[in-house]
């Protein structure tokens, strides 16, 4: 023990700050101890003396010292006072060299991280980042039913009680699962009961859970070529061996998939509106895919994104509705039809997999948040969702038409547009030799977030083009945005 009368480090007390005085005093001493400016065994001043020195009441000083003692930074000795704890690790006592506060930035050199597939991930390519004109993930956020949602939210908030702030069911609230099942049976032709529905935090969590249950490291999985990078990344991280299967005007080429990997464990497919080309899988291809899955024991992971938005005909019936052998797992989301901020989607499971997915859910995050589920259930069952769909379907049809007309006006007869009959994006095909990734980079500098078609290929890029989302750009903005894009071309 030292004989000092009490060490007073430099304390910056700001009486105008929102932080309480006791917190400022506590943090000042804590940081001084961690940084090594106060050493093990050094005595702190008395609370009365420190209060006089700082010109503050004694109460915040007492509270600060109590917190330091509670967290183990200091120790109290009867009749002697308060001292810096002698039990702190040696490296903390080294002045300026290795205290945790001195390591605000990582140390130089490599650090141990996962060596599997995650190590190869570095975020999405440049052309997949950002939000702005033509962003593929863009939606009409200004059309979100703010007033209706706020009313439902307030009504549910008034009913809050202890039972509603506890953990909820692992697969989601029964009322919401019942509403989702009813909607899917009527609108998408999905064959399901509420007990088969799992509420998830968007389609990415559905994919993650599916990969955990169905796949082992090295499991071969068919993926569409070109295809959705979000699914590719999830499957890659799960250790799956991705087998790219070409997509043509009839959708996934099932025969090519069988030739390439006849014993694949699973297939990821977007049959109603293929991403990114926008084609619809033909009936013959659908039946052949289900027949192969049944005979080989493979699983079919159907991502039915944007299926609600089809402009030239009624929505295509889900592939799951044709399945008679319970081989299809069906994924949907409210991110595009309502708001990506809700982070709510659903996964329809074969009955015999429900228990496995329930166990995985407990590992992942125990259960989905209950409060927002209650609001969404009300939104569905009271008819608000159906009205919202009718309104936004009309809006997106107008935006689609405005984009096609603007492209035709600027690019003329040589224009080839793909996938414009449904969804919230289309593809402008580019001539061979045009570097769509370079155009994507240059467009981003102009505030135009277009996706390079070639970035959706796992193997050698077979064609180039620009994937243009129109969900988040208004009819009035489209002509000017197209002119700016065409100048880059």
Summarize the structure in words:
Helices cover 36% and strands 12% of the residues. It has helices at residues 21-35, 47-54, 58-70, 146-158, 174-187, 202-214, 229-237, 254-260, 283-296, 354-364, 370-381, 384-411, 436-445, 478-488, and strands spanning 74-77, 81-84, 197-200, 220-225, 241-248, 251-252, 266-269, 299-303, 328-333, 345-348, 417-418, 425-429, 451-452, 465-469. It contains 14 helices and 14 strands. Helix 4 packs across helix 11 (370-381). The protein is an alpha/beta fold and 489 residues long. Among the domains are: 21-102, Winged helix-like DNA-binding domain superfamily/Winged helix DNA-binding domain (Arc Repressor Mutant, subunit A, Orthogonal Bundle); 164-382, Type I PLP-dependent aspartate aminotransferase-like (Major domain) (Aspartate Aminotransferase, domain 2, 3-Layer(aba) Sandwich). Strand 5 (241-248) and strand 6 form a beta hairpin. The model is unreliable at 92-103 (pLDDT under 50).
List keywords for this structure.
489 residues, Aspartate Aminotransferase, domain 2, eight-stranded mixed beta sheet, 14 strands
The gist of it:
36% of the residues lie in helices and 12% in strands.
Secondary structure layout plus pairing:
Blueprint: H1 21-35, H2 47-54, H3 58-70, E1 74-77, E2 81-84, H4 146-158, H5 174-187, E3 197-200, H6 202-214, E4 220-225, H7 229-237, E5 241-248, E6 251-252, H8 254-260, E7 266-269, H9 283-296, E8 299-303, E9 328-333, E10 345-348, H10 354-364, H11 370-381, H12 384-411, E11 417-418, E12 425-429, H13 436-445, E13 451-452, E14 465-469, H14 478-488
Parallel strand pairs: 4-5, 4-7, 7-8, 8-9
Antiparallel strand pairs: 1-2, 3-10, 5-6, 9-10, 11-12, 12-14, 13-14
Helix pairs in contact: 1-3, 2-3, 4-11, 5-11, 6-7, 6-10, 12-14
């Amino acid at each position: 023990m030292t004989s000092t009368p009490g060490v007073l480090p430099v304390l910056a007390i700001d009486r105008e700050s929102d932080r309480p005085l006791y917190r400022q005093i506590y943090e000042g001493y804590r940081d001084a101890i961690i940084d090594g400016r106060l050493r093990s065994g050094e005595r702190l001043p008395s609370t009365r003396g420190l209060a006089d020195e700082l010109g503050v009441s004694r109460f915040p000083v007492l509270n600060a010292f109590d917190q330091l003692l509670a967290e183990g930074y200091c120790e109290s000795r009867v009749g002697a006072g308060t001292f810096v704890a002698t039990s702190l690790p040696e490296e903390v006592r080294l002045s300026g060299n290795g205290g945790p506060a001195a390591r605000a930035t990582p140390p130089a050199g490599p650090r141990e991280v996962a060596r599997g597939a995650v190590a190869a991930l570095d975020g999405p390519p440049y052309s997949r980042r950002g939000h702005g004109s033509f962003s593929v993930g863009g939606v009409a956020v200004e059309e979100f039913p703010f007033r209706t949602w706020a009313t439902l939210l307030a009504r549910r908030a008034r009913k809050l009680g202890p039972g509603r702030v506890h953990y909820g069911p692992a697969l989601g609230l029964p009322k919401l699962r019942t509403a989702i099942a009813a909607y899917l049976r009527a609108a998408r032709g999905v064959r399901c009961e509420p007990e088969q529905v799992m509420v998830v935090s968007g389609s990415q969590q559905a994919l993650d859970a599916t990969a955990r249950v169905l796949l082992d490291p090295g499991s071969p999985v068919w993926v569409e070529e070109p295809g959705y990078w979000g699914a590719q990344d999830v499957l890659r991280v799960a250790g799956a061996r991705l087998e790219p299967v070409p997509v043509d005007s009839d959708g996934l080429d099932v025969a090519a998939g069988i030739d390439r990997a006849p014993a694949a464990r699973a297939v990821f497919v977007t049959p109603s509106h293929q991403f990114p080309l926008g084609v619809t899988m033909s009936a013959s291809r659908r039946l052949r895919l289900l027949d192969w899955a049944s005979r080989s024991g493979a699983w079919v992971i159907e991502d039915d994104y944007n299926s609600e938005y089809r402009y030239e005909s009624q929505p295509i019936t889900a592939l799951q509705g044709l399945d008679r052998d319970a081989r299809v797992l069906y994924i949907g989301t409210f991110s595009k039809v309502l708001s990506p901020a809700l982070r709510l989607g659903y996964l329809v499971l074969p009955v015999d997999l429900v228990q496995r997915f329930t166990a995985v859910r407990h590992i992942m995050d125990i259960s989905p948040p209950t409060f927002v589920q209650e609001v969404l259930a009300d939104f569905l069952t009271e008819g608000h969702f159906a009205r919202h769909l009718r309104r936004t379907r009309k809006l997106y049809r107008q935006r689609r038409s405005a984009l096609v007309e603007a492209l035709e006006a600027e690019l003329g007869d040589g224009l080839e547009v793909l996938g414009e009959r449904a969804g919230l994006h289309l593809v402008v095909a580019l001539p061979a030799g045009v570097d769509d990734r370079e155009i994507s980079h240059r467009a981003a500098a102009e505030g135009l977030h277009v996706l390079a078609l070639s970035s959706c290929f796992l193997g050698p890029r077979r064609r180039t083009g620009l994937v243009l989302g129109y969900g988040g750009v208004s009819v009035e903005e489209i002509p000017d945005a197209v002119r700016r894009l065409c100048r880059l071309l």
